[in-house]
Amino acid sequence: MVSLSLVITLLIKKTVMRRLACLCILSFFLIVSCKQNAVTEATANEVTLKTDTTSVTINRDIYGHFAEHLGRCIYGGFYVGEGNTKIPNTNGVRNDVVDALKKLKIPNLRWPGGCFADTYHWKDGIGPKSSRPSMVNVWWGNVTEDNSFGTHDFLNMCELLGTEPYLSANVGSGTPQEVSDWVQYVNFDAKSPMSQLRKQNGRDTSWKVKYWGVGNEAWGCGGNMTAEYYANIYSQYATFMTDAPNRTTFKIASGASDDDYHWTETLMKNVKHKLLQGVALHHYSVINWDAKGPSTEFTEDHYFATMKQACFMDSLIINHSAIMDKYDPEKKIALVVDEWGGWYEVEPGTNGAFLYQQNTMRDAMIAGCTLNYFNNHSDRVRMANLAQAINVLQAVILTDEEKLLLTPTYHVMEMYNVHQDAKRIPLDVKTVNYVYKGENLPAITASASKDSLGRTHISLVNIDANNAQEITLNLGANYSSLAGRILTSAKLQDYNTFENPAKIVPTAFNGASLKGNTMTVKMPPFSVVVLELK
Ligand code: AHR
Questions:
Q1: What is the pLDDT of residues 452-475, one digit of tens each?
Q2: Closest residue (by CA) to atom 8 of ligand 1?
Q3: pLDDT at 130 over 80
Q4: Per-residue pLDDT reduced to its tens digit, 348-357
Q5: Distance CA 1, CA 6 (A)
Q6: In a 3-state reduction of DSSP, which class is residue 371?
Q7: CA 491/CA 489 separation, integer angstroms
């Protein structure tokens, strides 16, 4: 199949014709991938677990997070300063945040951006805090960044959280030397100018950082580059990102925005694969960049439009993966969705550049569907990062001075963490449609896995704003015990507040019944359910 497509492409010389041919090939792969994904419209919901084909592991890194120097994500969110006596902290990092994120089992954390990353000079953020220079955060409100939270602060915080750091290096306004020095500074154990500098700054052993982003959104805020130009720049930077012998960094190329398939194709074709471990993809569930709609007082029009964007993630993964398959049929290179989530207007009265928004049951729907897609495509999607962890966009945590709340998105991610590092169980999903003003979206999404203790977990989402759904599950095996939790609320627009932080929390689910190797589940409208079978 792959060689046939290559031959066709080689035979066609003219650019227009070649583009047409690429489109045809892509559609062919799309049809094949859709069939593999096996989601079909139906008049009744039915999910079949293909328990005999559980060969792929769901990489825990799919459940990663993102922390940018943006608004109150770092300052006020993660970090309140060493001298803070009002908010309990460890070296300036909030203890309540550490506790909450540990419970979430966050596997990795991306930092310092985002757009900010391509303006960030890491050497400004090391050494005594009193002598660190300030800079202006040009992307996010032109506020003064005093560099009080830098490399040591971030990497030590990751140790506290028990999470893998993912450093996003400055390509847009930096140099290969600066990035090469950063790798040496954090990862080199033997004697070198950079390891000596690190030791002078109080850290003897290296942090052994595995994940490195080589620039961010190089097509936009990261330098407005073409795909071809960036592929060359990427290769140049990646060549010099070397650390200790026998330890290889996992380098991730700045990837496509949404359906820019040419970007992915160019990277896969032009960059030597030994330099490339991951290709990124960014996709936000935004209705319209010029009219994003409110985060809480939204209508069903807004909701349906948001969910259309959220569902689009499935097609994006299928299409980008098909291109990657052409150049990397063994799937050695990961698709890394290192920015995803809902994006609305900021909360009234807050700084427009700080991207602070509330988080409702709509966000729980986005999270549930998206994580199902990631689980189902975990042969290629091996890392992802929700944007962003605290106080920015689809956050899992919101803070207000000493107060903290967990959002519905937090609860979905916590319910789903049972899938981390478990074996994926492929599914056939037949779903009825959520119909709104003549348009359709699949009402049900699902994913399933078996963990190392032999427990099967199934996560189900019903995005239908109005209708409950009954689902028949063909389990392919007999189980003796069944337990489950549900996240739902009276209204789609409901959210947790600092006054009522537990309005939306997972509760025990009693809507499933087991009979032999068949289970029936009754889900209310806009709900997420995770079931455990033993
Ligand atoms: O997450 C907010 C911003 O969205 C990031 O800085 C950028 O990469 C993207 O455009």
A1: 999 999 999 999 999 999 999 999
A2: 114
A3: yes
A4: 999 999 999 9
A5: 9
A6: helix
A7: 6
The ligand 1 site (C-beta within 6 Å) comprises 68, 113-115, 216-217, 339, 387-388, 393
Burial class (CB in 10 A: 0-12, 13-18, 19+), 326: buried
Task: Calculate Rg over the CA atoms of the chain.
Answer: 23
Pull the structure tokens for residue 216: 């961010």
Nearest CA to ligand 1 atom 5: 114
Q: Whose CA is nearest to atom 9 of ligand 1?
A: 114
Task: Say which residue the tokens 């605290």 belong to.
Answer: 390
What is the 8-class DSSP label of residue 109?
A: E
- The CA–CA distances, whole Å, from 425 to 64, 420, 455, 510 equal 21, 13, 12, 23
pTM confidence score? 0.93
- Residue 21: band (very low, low, confident or very high) from pLDDT cuts 50, 70, 90: very low
Is residue 258 within 8 Å of residue 316, measured between CB atoms?
A: yes
Please identify, by atom number, the ligand 1 atom nearest to the C-alpha of residue 113. Answer: 6
Distance (Å) from CA 79 to ligand 1 centroid: 20
- Give the rounded distance of the alpha carbon of 206 from its chain centre: 27
Contact status, residue 462 vs residue 530, Cβ threshold 8 Å: no
